[in-house]
Amino acid sequence: MVDNSSLFEEILSQDNAASPSARCVLCKGSRMLCGKDRCSVVARFYSASRIRQQIDRTDIDGASPPSVFVGRFGYPRVAIGPMIPPYHGDTSMMDTPERWSHLTIDDIIDFRSTMVRGMHTVKVHDVENPDRLVVRTRDLALARTPPDVFAEFERKPFGKLTVNDNAEPFGPSAPLRKFDVSNYKFDTRLEKAYFDTDLKARDAMVSLYGNGTLVSQIQRAFSVGALGIGKKRKFVPTRWSITAVDSNLGLHMLETTKTLPVINEFRVYESRSLDNRYTVIMMPTSWKYELIEAWYPRTAWNPYGNRIAIMGDHEFYDGRTTYASIGGCYYSARLAVNELLQRERRQAGVVILREAHPGYILPVGVWSVRETVRAAMRSKPKRFPALNDALAHVSTVLDIPMSRWIKNSAILKDALYQKRIDQPWGLS
Q: For residue range 320-332, what is the model confidence (pLDDT) as tens digits?
């Protein structure tokens, strides 16, 4: 019998230290004092305890999906390295969020908590003069199928399930002593982009995307400095690379989107995932875009609040010059809606409304926003002759009153109250 009490106390103390109250200490996962239906601390504990016996050593042997991680703390000195589960086989799904839309949070916690992170500290520009560990990390990032990886650590992997709002969760970590990669082949598309040292990073992203490379694969290659002009290449922290790729691909599409004919109706698309509800409102106007998120109490980013927290960001036709305050999800969703507009060869005004309900107990990364909006874009939309009709339908899908959404929306207020001479569509 393995004594897991110290592991639980470690996770509990780290969660409680970051919280504004001592509710976790008083509750200990039994009384649900925070009001959640399930305890996120306990969920993380049980996932960690299932893998503890398998990683209670200073080496690991497994098949990486492939997966790498580049940290951001200490920038421009960052920790890079592989992420490895302690078993072999086809592990590709473990780092392919494009395939996760049908999964539950428990599913994601279960397999992502087995991803052990190896860490090797480098300067971000060391990509130009790589040591052996840097070369192996890059090779892993460019692999087409899960390669076999053997790693030795300076100590036993340690830590809780790591989560943030951009990148996918992962499990314990440890400093690398060495690691080897075998039985792999490069993805030829990524390999070609890597050897083209005269190709700008954004052009490489666009070319790879056009060739069918998954967004997550492009993000991984960009993070290890495999894309861009040779002398300008550097390691990019994983969470930054995710947003950079989403943003650059979206901006590239917008160059065309803004020149296309406007749609001729109001539409509403819908999708749900991980206890999040999304509605996408498309309006027959030139390009404008807004994402508004409503976080219920007891959700990932509103765990101790007693009111719904609503926030959003927007852009009109000329775009925006500052980083969106709601983070990378803004750019992930913008990419997803532009994919549809590109397929239809149309442009539109777009407002996305997201309700995050209490079942969303842990953040799993912005991939969930991109993939859920993509799912909405694949669904058959409801079509309406006027904006008020579309909003009336949205009010039957979301719980928050439409008046509150409008109050927090720059674009809906503009559409409802700003009169235009050339506006061809009535509001009611």
A: 999 999 999 999 9
> Which of 294-298, 327-331, 365-369 shows the lowest per-residue confidence on average (mean pLDDT)?
294-298
Q: Among residues 238, 233, 227, 197, which one has the least CA distance to residue 82?
A: 238
* Pairwise CA distance, residues 136 & 131, whole Å: 9
SS3 100: coil
Nearest to 377 by CA among 252, 280, 256, 249: 280
Q: Is the per-residue pLDDT at 203 higher than 90?
A: yes
Pairing of strands 288-295, 309-315: antiparallel
User: Are 228 and 200 in contact, with CB atoms under 8 Å apart?
Assistant: yes
Do β-strands 116-123 and 173-182 pair in parallel, antiparallel, or remain unpaired? parallel
How many whole angstroms from its chain centre is CA 120?
24
Of 59, 64, 74, nearest to 153 by C-alpha is 59
Structure tokens at 409: 């929306």
Name the DSSP letter for residue 399. Answer: S
* Per-residue buried b or exposed e for 186-211, using 16+ beta carbons within 10 Å of the residue's own CB: ebebbbebbebeebebbbbbbbbbee
d(CA 112, CA 104): 12
Q: What is the dihedral of CA 296, 405, 394, 354, to 10 degrees?
A: -40
The closest of 146, 151, 125 to 61, measured between CA atoms, is 151
